[in-house]
Each structure stands twice: as structure tokens, then as C-alpha cells.
Specification:
The complex is a heterodimer of chains A (111) and B (120).
Chain A lengths: L3 E4 L2 E5 L4 E7 L6 E7 L5 E8 L4 E4 L2 E6 L4 E6 L8 E8 L11 E6 L1
Parallel strand pairs in A: 2-10
Antiparallel strand pairs in A: 1-3, 3-8, 4-5, 4-9, 6-7, 7-8, 9-10
Chain B lengths: L4 E3 L2 E4 L5 E6 L6 E7 L6 E7 L2 E4 L8 E4 L6 E5 L8 E8 L13 E3 L3 E5 L1
Parallel strand pairs in B: 2-11
Antiparallel strand pairs in B: 1-3, 3-8, 4-5, 4-9, 5-6, 7-8, 9-10, 9-11
The chains are: A mainly beta (111), B mainly beta (120).
Amino acid sequence: KQEVTQIPAALSVPEGENLVLNCSFTDSAIYNLQWFRQDPGKGLTSLLLIQSSQREQTSGRLNASLDKSSGRSTLYIAASQPGDSATYLCAPTGATNKLIFGTGTLLAVQP
Amino acid sequence: EAGVAQSPRYKIIEKRQSVAFWCNPISGHATLYWYQQILGQGPKLLIQFQNNGVVDDSQLPKDRFSAERLKGVDSTLKIQPAKLEDSAVYLCASSHLFLKTGTGGNYGYTFGSGTRLTVV
């Protein structure tokens, strides 16, 4: 059974800092992994999708890496801004495209 | 493109009452999902449809929850009777094709804004 852990659970940083969010999963037989952002009271916004054959994906100030063999993914946010404040969720998918979510990292970027 | 539409946005009901949620996925998305997100937790898959067939409903409490996707487009999720522990946000999502081999295609999900259910 796939289990997903995200560290840290919460993070508060001053504006402008680079930061790393960590995600680990127990079953390395995944097809891809997605990172999502969730704002309070809102649905989930897909940030990055990494196919199992890829090592990383980049979108603007975001870079996500994937190491399937070790069961880890990291989300790197460069030059953080107050607008980045949200909960970040990672979710690997298996053969049926079912997402298994961690409990997320609550990020607060202080102006 | 239009997003995933869900209604209602909020619902408050008493325990033992029934409630229904509606979802309209992105046009052309064959796969539709219902997730339950309890406060402080990540979303958990309740049921997954491929067109109008069920792919996975292993975590759906079938004694009280039911879902259908008529004509492979819109879907409804029903709870009858509701319990206090059903208080959560119910998220609908859709995605492009799902391939058993897991090769090729775009598996990216699009989520709706969710329905916040409070059972009192």
C-alpha cells in the first residue's frame, strides 16, 4: 500500500528565500508524480507533473525532481514570494492513475 | 478551456439526512474522480470512473455512499444517511485518457473547487 510523507509539515520563510519541500513514498512502482498547490477553501491546482521516465520538470520558479528508486521527490521554489503561501501536496500515481496524497506542507512566505 | 464545475459550493445538513453533489468534468476528459478531503489531511480517492464504468471504488463506503456517471460525462455523488465524520470537502477531478501500460498520454489532473460539507 502506497504511503506518502511530506516534510516539513509547515514552513515559514522570509520573502526572497529559496526553499525545498520534500516528498517520500514507499512504493517505487509509480507511473508519474504530481505536485499540487492548495489555497485555503479552494481546490487543487496542478503545478508540475513528472513522468516516471523523467528526472525533473521545471515551470517558472518551480523545479521538481523525482528519484523513483529511492522513493523521493523534491519541489524547489526559487525566490519565494508572499503569493506562494499555500499548502503544497505531492501525489504519486500508480497504474490506474489514482493519486495518493501526502498530508502536505503548509508554506507561509513573510513579506 | 472551462474548468471542472462542482455544485453546490457549501452544504450543511443534519446527521442521518441525505445529500448529493454534482460534477461536470472538462470536455473530452474520459476519467473522472471523486476525492474526500478531511480537514488537515490530503485528499483520498473515493471512486474513479473511466467513461461511465467504475475503475476503482475500493475506498467508497458503499453502505452510505453512491456515485454514478451517466453517459460518461456528468457525475453525482450521494451520501445517505450522512454521519458526522462525513464532514469534509468533496473534490471532483478529471483527466485525459488512462492507459494500463502507463506509457504516453497526459495524465494531468484538473480539480474542481470542491463542495464543503458540514454534518451537524
